[in-house]
What we know:
With 71 residues, the chain is mainly beta. The chain is built from one helix and five strands.
Amino acid sequence: IVTALQNNVYVTGTTPLMKDGKEKEQGIGYLDDGTMVVVEDGRKHIGKRTEVAVYSILQTSSGRMIFAKVK
Length: 71
């Protein structure tokens, strides 16, 4: 996922989901570089490595956030 995102290509890939998100049914994971991945409908996949499809990337002052859906 990281390599493709460096080239601004929207991709699918896998990420381990670690905790609940702020919104209902979200799961949160992190890439190796520390980038947060917010996954819609990811809550039931917490603790598992999950295939996701990236649909949005947001650059913030504290880093990049990736928004994805379970594939």
